[in-house]
């Protein structure tokens, strides 16, 4: 059973990667397709709740409880990227050009290299000190 689930996961992971690579260049289409999927999931959950006879208030309380416990309440309805970009007075990711994103990625890569060099230097200094 586990092997079957791993194969299914791998197949969907590959499909997701290919779709994301193509859709990332068309954010409005990407957003529309994503919203159709999300609304469809919500609609399915809504109908299951109706079938089980769960009241509107119970559903609201249960959903709020679950999303708050899992930490998804704020991040889903507002989004952590929007909060962070607002705090930093930056553009949202969907407002940035590919060039701006590439520059940021390059800057982050440079920072990672610098941190790695600093870490290696500290290790060498510690080794010299311990000798």
What's the short version?
The chain is an all-alpha fold. It is 83% helix and 0% strand.
Characterization of the model:
The structure is a single chain. With 131 residues, the chain is mainly α. The protein folds into 3 domains: 1-53; 54-92, no CATH class; 97-131. 83% of the residues lie in helices and 0% in strands. It contains 6 helices and no strands. It has helices at 2-23, 27-52, 56-69, 72-77, 80-87, 98-130. The model has no long low-confidence stretch (mean pLDDT 83).
**In sequence order, what are the helices and strands, one letter per element?**
HHHHHH
Poorly predicted sequence stretches spanning 5 or more consecutive residues: none
Give the termini separation. Answer: 54 Å
Number of helices: 6
Question: Strand tally, please?
Answer: 0
Mean pLDDT: 83
Index terms:
single chain, 131 residues, mainly alpha, 3 domains, elongated
Secondary-structure map with pairings?
Elements: H1 2-23, H2 27-52, H3 56-69, H4 72-77, H5 80-87, H6 98-130
């Amino acid at each position: 059973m586990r092997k079957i689930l791993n194969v299914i996961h791998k197949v969907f992971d590959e499909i997701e990667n290919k779709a994301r690579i193509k859709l990332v260049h068309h954010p409005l289409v990407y957003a529309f397709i994503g919203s159709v999927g999300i609304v469809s999931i919500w609609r399915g959950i809504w109908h299951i709740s109706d079938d089980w006879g769960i009241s509107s208030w119970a559903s609201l309380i249960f959903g709020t409880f679950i999303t708050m416990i899992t930490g998804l309440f704020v991040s889903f309805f507002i989004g952590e990227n929007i909060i962070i970009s607002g705090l930093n007075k930056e553009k949202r990711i969907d407002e940035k050009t590919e060039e701006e994103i590439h520059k940021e990625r390059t800057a982050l890569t440079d920072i990672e290299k610098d941190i790695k060099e600093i870490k290696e230097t500290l290790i060498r200094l510690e080794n010299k000190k311990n000798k």
